Structures are given as C-alpha cells and as structure tokens.
Amino acid sequence: MLVVGLAWLIDQLVISGRSPSTLVPVFIGLIAVVLLRSLFQALQESCSAQASLRIRQYARQVLLDRMAALGPVWLTRQQSGALATQSVEHIEALDGYFSRFHPQLRIVVALPLLILCVVGWFDYLVAFFLLLSAPLIPLFMALVGIGAERLNRDQFMAVSRLSAHFIDRVRGMTTLQLFGHTKAAQQDVWYATDHYRRLSMRTLRLAFLSSAVLEFFASVAIAVVAMYVGFGLLGYIDYGPSPSLTLFSGLAVLLLAPEFFQPLRTLSQHYHDRAAALGAAESLVAILNEHSVVASTSALPRSAQALIELDHVGINYAGRAVVLSDVNVSINAGDVVAITGESGSGKSSLLALMAGFMVPNHGECRIDRTAPIAWLDQAPCILQGTLADNLRLAAPAADADTLTWALQRAGLAELLSGLPDGLETMIGERGVGLSGGQAQRLALARVYLSKARLVILDEPTANLDAATERVVIQALLEWAKEGRTLVMATHHPAVVVAANRHFQCRSGQLVEVAI
Amino acid sequence: MKQFYRDFAPWLKLLLRRRQRFFVGALLVWVTLLAGLSLLGLSGWFIVSCALAGIALAAGLPASLDVYVPGGGIRFFALLRTVARYMERLYNHNTVLTLLADLRYRVFGDLTRLDDASLKRRRASEWLSRLTSDIDNLDNLYLRLLIPPIAALLTILGVSAFIAIWLPVAAAVVAVVLTLLWAIVTVGYGWLGFANSYQQVSDQEELRRLVLDQVQASAELLSYQTQGWHRQKVAQHEAQTFNNQQRLAIKSSVGNAFLSGVTGCLLIATLWIGSIALSAEEVVGPILVMAVIAVLGINEVLVLLPAAFLKLGSSYGAAQRLNALNVNQSVTKVVELPENSKGHSLQFDHVSYTYPEAVSPALINLHAILPARSRVVITGVSGSGKSTLASLVMGRTAPTNGVIHVAGHSPWYVSPEDRAEHFALLTQQTDLFDGTLEENLRIAKPSATEEELWQALSRVALSHWVQQQPKQLLTHVGEKGQQLSGGQARRVALARLMLRNPAVVLLDEPFAGVDAETARHLAASLDQWLVGRTAIFLLHQIDDVALLPNVAYQWRLDEGRLITDTTV
Q1: CB A366 within 8 A of CB A299
Q2: Closest CA relative to residue B397, chosen from B408, B411, B383, B385
Q3: Which residues have C-beta within 8 Å of that of residue B278, sequence separation ≥ 6?
Q4: What pLDDT does residue A319 have?
Q5: What local confidence, expressed as pLDDT, does residue A49 receive?
Q6: Cα separation of A476 and A459, whole Å?
Q7: Which of A136, A320, A469, B105 could form a disulfide with A461 if both were Cys (CB 3.0 to 4.6 A apart)?
C-alpha cells in the first residue's frame, strides 16, 4: 500500500501538477500506513520470538524428562559435557529455525502471490513476466537450497573437525608443556586453521554462486520492468496493456518488482538457521529415541517383610556375555547384606537393579519404593552450589539444625566450624574444594538426612585411605543397627563379618554364602 | 566505559592488524549497497522522464530523451550489484577465516603460559566447548559489528550528498535523521541490550551447570526421590531466563519496527519537501523520484544493525572470559639448572601446598632428601597428593610454604624451556593427540630418526604390534588415542618419554593397564633407561617389587603427609 500510495502521490504531483497542500490528507494517510506497517512488523517478530521461546522451553523439558527416565545407568555411559551442550546450545540452535526460517517459509509462498495479483491488476504484461520467472523461483530455491545445504553440511563437518583439532591440543596442554612443544603446537594451530580457510574458500566460491544467481534475477527483473515501463510510457510499445500505462501504474510495478523477490532473498539469508537447527535436532532426537531403562512403576514385594524381591532375574548388555542370570533373592527389612565378587562380576548391575536404576532383561524385580532409598557409591556427587544445597539433595525440606546434625554425625563438624559462611559456603568446582574423604562423609550425611530405611552402597570406600575407610564403614554399620537395611558391595572384611547375609557374584551367578 | 574499552582493546587490535582487508571488505559492502540504490533510483528517474516525454510527445510538443545512456546505466548497476555482492561475500568470509586463525593462535599462546594449577582447575569444568564458541563469537565481531555499521554510515553520507545536489534541504533532513538513527541502532542498541545479552550468557552457563548436576547426581536424585525438587530449580531458573530472553526479543522487534517507521516517515518527509520544491519549480519530477526511491532503499542498509548490536553484551562476555586466560604470568624465570648429564638431587624443606580455595592442605610439611641418580617409589591412594608433589618437583606449581631444591635450585624459577629439558613426567592421564603414531612420538623429539622411533617402540614392547599395522608408524591413534587400547596408549606415552634425555624422571603409575608380562618388559627397559637419572615412581600400591629394580627408597603419602621411614 505504501508503495502504491507513493506512486499515486508522485503521479499526482508530477503529472497533474497538483500543489502539495491539496494532498495533505494523502501524506497523513501514508504516514499512518507506515506506522501500521511497523506495528504489525513488531507484532509478527515478537510473536515469532515468543513461539520460539516456548518451543525451546518445551523441547528442553522433554529432553530433561527423557534424561531422567533413561536413568543413572545410561547416563554414566554418556559424556556429561556433551549432554549439557545438547540441553543448552543445541536447543538454543532451534531458535533461528522457529523464529525466522519457519515464518519466512510461509511468507515466501503468500507474499509473492499477493504482489503478483496487485501487479497483474496494474499491468498484466509485467505480471506475466514475473509469472514467467515464478516457476524459476522454486528452481532457484532448490538451487540455493542444495548449495546452502551442501555448504552447510561441509562447513559443519569441517568446522567441527577443526574445533576438535584445537580442543585436542588444548586438552593435552600439560603434555605439550612437559615436552617443551608449545611453540610448535601454536604454529600448528595457525596452519590447521589456515588450511581449513583455503579449503573452505574453494567450497564457498561455488556455494555463493547460487545466491548470486538469485541476486542477479532480482536485479534483472528491476531492469527489465524499468525498461518496459519506460518505453511503454514513451509510446514505443503498442501492444497489450502498454498504451494504457500511466506513471502511477508504471512506478507502482517498478517498486513492486524487487518486493516480489525479497522474501526469497530473506529466506536464503536464513538458510543457515535451518541447517544449524537440523544438526541440533538430529542430536536431540537421538536421545529422545533411546529406550528407557528405569523402572517406571514397580510392583510391591509379595512378602510383607521383604523390601526387595528379585524373581528369576537376568541381566545382559548388548554385545556382551550375560552378566547375571536367574537371580532369586529376597531381602528383608533389617538385613545387613554384603555382596562380594571380582570387578566386572555384576555387583554394580545388581545394585543398580535393586535401586531401580534399570529394569532386568528377564524376570521381575519387586521393590518397596514407598520410602526413599539411600544410595552411596565410590564417587559421591558434589553439586555446584552451597553445602546446604548438597545436603538438601537428599532431603529438600530439612532445616538448618537438621543439616548441622547430619554433618556432625558424619564427622564433618570440624569442617563446618572452619567455614566462614557455614552451611551457605559454596563448594565444588567454583568454591571450596573437598578432599575425597570429606566428600564421602558429605555423602554419608545425606544418607542420615534421607531417613531412608534401605541403604544401597556400591563399594563406598574404594577410593579412601585406610583410616577414613574404617570410620565410614563403622558409621554405616551403626546406622544399620538402628533398624535399617543395608546392601553393600564391598571387599572390606569388616563388613562381611558384620553382615548377617553374604552373597557372592561368581561366573554369572549370585550365590549366598552361609555365615 | 573505560573498562569496556580495556576488555575489547586487545581483540580489536588483533582485528585491526588486518586493516587493509578490513577496509577493502567495507568498501565492497558499500559498493554493493550503492549499486542496489542506484539501480532503483535510476530506474525511477528513467520511468518518470519517459512519462513526461511521452506526455509531451502526445501533446505534439517537441521532446527528446536519450534512452540509451540510462538504459545502459540500469543494466550496468544490475550487473554491478550482483558481482559486488558475490565478491563482497567471498572476500569477507575469507577475512573472517583469516581472523579465526589469528584469534586461535593468540588464545592458544595464552593457554601455553598457564601454570599447572590453572590448567587443572579448568580441565575439570566444561570449559573447552565454551572456549571455541567464545572465539567464534569474537570472530563474528567483524561481520556483525564492524563492517555493517561503517558501510551503512558511508552509504548514508553518500546518498545525502547525492540528493544535496538538487534538494539541499531534503538532503540535510535525510543526513541528520539517518545519522541519528544510525547512532541509535548501533550505540543506543548496544547499550540497550547490553545487560540482557550479557545476562543471557550467564543464564546459559547456569543452565548448563544445572543440567550437569542433574546428569551427575542422577543416582542420588532418583533414589532419594528428589527429582522434582531439582526440576523445580531448573524451572525457576528457566522462568528467569525466559523473561530475560523475552525482553531481548521485544527490544529487537521494537528496534526493527522503529527503524522501518522512521525510514518510512523520512521517505514521506522527503517527498513532501521535494514536492514543495517541485511546485516552486526548483527541481524536476524525475530527480524527485530518484531521491525518493534512494531513501526508500536505505532501509536495507540499516536493517541488520539493531539485532546485531543488541548482542554486544554476549561478545563482551566472551572477550572478558578470554582475557581471564591471560593473567598471573608475571613470575620472572631466571634460574638455570646445571648440565643434566649427572641426574639431580632433590630436597624437600618443610614443603606444604594448599590449593587455592581448598579448606585443607594437599601436602603438609614434606621433609625429605633424595640423592642424585637414585630412585624412589612413593605410594598413596588417589587424592593423597602424589600429582601435586610431582607438579611441585617440576616447578609447575610454587609451594605455599617451604622450599624445594633440585640440584640446589628452586625449580619454580627455572624457565619453561629449561624445565622441559631437565624433567620428564609420565602423567597419570595419557594425553595422545589426534594424529599418527609418528607425530605423537615426535612431540618428544622432532629431530628423531625413524630408527630411534622404532627403538623407543621396542622398549615398550610395541614395535611388533606396530609392524603388523598396515600403515606402521603412520597408524592413526584417534582423538585422545581412542583407537588404541588403554594399555597401548600408555605405552606409547612411555615410549615418547624415553625419546628424551631428562635428568629427573617422574612416573605416575607406569604399569597401569598392562598385563604382567608386558609390565616386566617395561620395568627392564626403564631400569636400563633410568641409569644416571633421578627417578620417582608414583604408585597406588606396590603390586610386585620385581617391577622396581634398583629402587632404594620407599616413601608413602598419607593424607598429604610424607612418611619416609620405610625402605625397600
């Protein structure tokens, strides 16, 4: 409308020689059109952005749900850094597609058609010319598409290879320093990037051609329309609608011609958004398609005293020998169970099964999950946060006094009194570092806080020195004496002695050893 | 503001080292923009001239119009725009990639000067993937924040000057309004979005941290049934992030709308001023149309600026993080160790070390002497301080208290080059690089002959295996040496070590991941190679004393304390 109004105004001013003052309402009308256009543009953009934000939020929720459902057994086999990248960067990479490319894809269909109609109303020859180039548009879209697609795929791969090279060198920085090889490696980094530059310039030379063709057509369209209108106005062309051309209709079609191609040019500018989103989506879908291994709902044990019942249970991982087969165990409230066996004999799998981290391949696993289960393994997890955050992991509702009590009981009273901010001290990577023994005691404090009746432990003292190991084992056995159930994979003789039941994992079987 | 400049300055200087490319790139963008404007402007002029001539002819008045020059001009600009755009894209991408090489070179240089403690602290975090995206962010600076505003300003001035030939008043209005608008969408928008985009980066960092927590604490969250609690934390954080991003999105769309609104109004104002001039017969119709169309096209020059400048904060964050790599390198390294053919004696004099931010010390009051050319085994569980001790001996970390003497000198003051020559360390974590076996070995001795490489491999009982590989020494080891087994990678690392000629050798778990027979082979090779050197074996526990021939001392690390009263 702006363009047509403008053309009419110019026509009136130039040809009819009307004075500007008589056209004031038209000027005001045009200003209104300008402002309306801006308003709608703003609305369209913020709606797209809003939609993209919501989509990303939803995608992240689904992904996190999925990761929770896949459970600890699956997660330990993944690189946590890669998962974090997927949940943050890859989901953000969807933004361009939803807020820019996708709306533009709709515009590319609708807007040229609309413009074609308006142009056709003014002058069907010009419309015919544009229509002739219209079948070319899908062709060029494909051309641009293929070019951009290949460009993006190649670039994507080359870039990630190059980044891998760089990260590889940075990761091994200690080694490079140790060998006094840093200067040469630095040169290497430059050469590798420069080599990549030369390679990708070769691809780019071709890839940019396709958008150049599009650009060329837009330019030629303007030129051809200008020439046609010009000659028509001069009266040199006397067939079709040309004789009835006025400055108004001529100017209008001239100004509309580039608008006809503009959506397509914008689309090709946003094409890399699509490629980035596709690459990201691929990696996300790979996770979403993983099979869940966590027991979603588990049946309650049949016997009233039992906390865990394993019924003809077998575990095997794809491509490996059977880990355990035909396990029949019932663990009752108050049992202290020691599980021994060589590394790789299936102790950890058995414990993961009992904790509900995975479902068995065969048989049934019945666990009483009405109360939380306490879990402790050899590498206690320290969250990035305060000491209190780390304790609340086991009991979100606990107050400060309870937290202090748990720390004291776990033998961390001294540490706590030495911290200036007390429970609010930041620990972990960004804060105070804890030694291995301190971290394990912190995990022990979590066990105390959780009030869990069943405690499952996977070699909790494997990384501790002898003194700390004794203290932790003693504390756990005392905790069990207060009427709790303890299932522990261990090598420690003291545990085997204190246990009232002892199982051994041996060549795929679980054997109860008489005590 | 000063701080802002100081943080960006090193990177801008780096970019401006390529200023010639920079100016040519900006010039090409400018030519492209002007060619587009000229094409439309000239077409408008042409049509109006034709119309006026047509009317005159119809009225039987004598009128003549040269249609060939403008026609040629239209074709010329159509072609120029296409060619200039193609050249511009190619040229500027080339520049961006050249800058990428410069940036990586510089950041890598900063990293090579980091000391052990900083490297260790960083390895643990999710810092590597951040690093490359920060570099890319600064690389983009050139295409997003430097070239477009300069080309836009030049175009504004060019168009105004052109219009000024016929319509000085309108040109003045155009120049003033557009320059103001330019300032608003660059400086103004940079300022407006700064806090939000800066916040966005730290929000993402926080989100990353929360996801990592969920992954790493998944066992605890599941068993304690506290997943809901953690997800609530994530949801809370997301809500905050959502608000911030929404604000940014609204600012961006308002910015674009503001831009098109102002340029639209300016267009109409130009027409209004022009029409008054027209009715006063100061200007002819075709010129008026050309001016109006030029103003119409100017929107394209500015349209990308608001969104790009809104993200200034995130670029600033990237620059800040990369600047942080370039600190604490003020220690002057002066001491030179004596000639290394004799081995060096080691002396710990009440040495303690506490990691920055740690509550308790990693090493407490170490006091011991190791004579030159003798061998010691130090045992201790992981976390007892073995790697810290190695780092101190090699001068990669300075002790918090006490002094270490290597051949009578404090190793901390030895230059890195000298240290690399005198010390060798087999790290617990094997670092192989993505490349061939030969490349990995030559890191230790670039000038090594092929024979020397084979000899080193046979020392670690790998020469037979390598001979069986189709590509032999050119066999690829893969990223992090993943195409080799853990034991093989470890032996390659050991072979690499034995290509050097150090005076002091530290071996962290040299027999990890290899079978008993290979371990004995390695022990024999080491025994031979270690003659005349001072050696420290760092082991979790001693499995087999036969693997440690000629080791005279046995020390033990227990929670940071060194117990030296045991002998083999």
Answers
A1: yes
A2: B411
A3: A13, A14, A20, B284, B285, B288
A4: 58
A5: 87
A6: 12
A7: A469
Instruction: Return the CA Rg of chain B.
Output: 35
Tokens read off for B79: 């072609």
DSSP label of B281: T
Judging by beta carbons within 10 Å of its beta carbon (0-12, 13-18, 19+), is residue B218 exposed, middle or buried? buried
Reply yes or no on whether the pLDDT at B525 is more than 50: yes
Instruction: Kindly state the tokens that stand for B306.
Output: 């608001």
State the pLDDT at residue A31: 81
pLDDT-based confidence at residue B568 (cuts at 50, 70, 90): very low
| Partner B, chain A 102-161, Cβ-Cβ below 8 Å | none
Q: Identify the residue among B246, B359, B397 best suited for mutation to test binding to A, counting A beta carbons within 10 A and taking the highest.
A: B359
Which residue type does A65 have? D
Strand order through the sheet with B423-426: B401-406, B346-353, B363-370, B561-567, B553-558, B375-379, B534-539, B504-508, B423-426
Taking the C-alpha atoms of residue B281 and residue B113, their distance in angstroms, rounded to an integer, is: 73
pLDDT band at B481 (very low <50, low <70, confident <90, very high): low
* Tokens 């670690």, residue located: B460
Q: What is the ipTM of this complex?
A: 0.81
On chain A, the residues whose CB falls within 8 A of the CB of B421 are 180
3-class secondary structure, B515: coil
| Full DSSP string of A483-507 | T-EEEEE---HHHHHH-SEEEEEET
Whether the per-residue pLDDT at A384 is higher than 70: the answer is: yes
Query: How far apart are the C-alpha atoms of B204 and B242, rounded to whole Å?
Result: 11
Burial class (CB in 10 A: 0-12, 13-18, 19+), B85: buried
User: Could B86 and A57 be called an inter-chain contact, meaning their C-beta atoms sit closer than 8 Å?
Assistant: no
The Cα of B373 is separated from the nearest Cα of chain A by a number of Å equal to 21
Q: Is A446 on the interface with B (CB under 8 A)?
A: yes
Q: Which of A4-13, B100-109, B333-342 has maximum average pLDDT?
A: B100-109
Give DSSP secondary structure letters for A213-250: HHHHHHHHHHHHHHHHHHHHHHT---STTGGG--HHHH
**Can you spell out the DSSP letters for A424-459?**
G-EESTTSBB--HHHHHHHHHHHHHHHT-SEEEEES
pLDDT digits (tens, 9 = 90+) for B248-271: 888 888 888 888 888 888 888 888
B-chain CB neighbours of A64 within 8 Å are 211, 214, 231, 234
Type of residue found at A402: T
| pLDDT value of position B346 | 81
Paired tokens of A505? 């994992």
Q: Is residue A344 over pLDDT 70?
A: no
- For the ranges A51-60, A134-143, A197-206, B498-507, the lowest mean pLDDT is seen at A134-143
Tokens of B5: 């400049």
Q: What is the pLDDT of residues B374-405, one digit of tens each?
A: 888 888 876 677 788 888 888 888 888 888 88
Please check whether residue B108 is in contact with residue A186, taking contact to mean a CB–CB distance below 8 angstroms: yes
Q: How many residues does chain B have?
A: 568
Q: Which amino acid is at B492?
A: V
Give the model's confidence band at B541: pLDDT under 50 very low, under 70 low, under 90 confident, else very high: confident
Q: Which residue has the tokens 């329309």?
A: A225
Phi, psi angles (nearest 5°) of residue B554: -130, 115
Overall average pLDDT of the B280-288 stretch: 76
* Lookup result for tokens 């960004």: A430
Task: Answer whether A474's CB lies under 8 Å from A410's CB.
Answer: no
- Alpha-carbon distance of B231 to B238, in angstroms, equals 10
Count of positions (residues) in chain A: 515
Which of residues A86 and B151 earns the better pLDDT score?
B151
Rounded (5°) CA angle A471-A473-A474: 65
Both ends of chain B: CA-CA distance in Å? Answer: 65
Residue B138 CA: distances (Å) to CA of B100, B320, B481: 9, 11, 31
Q: Average per-residue pLDDT in chain B?
A: 81
Q: Which two tokens stand for residue A361?
A: 């391949």
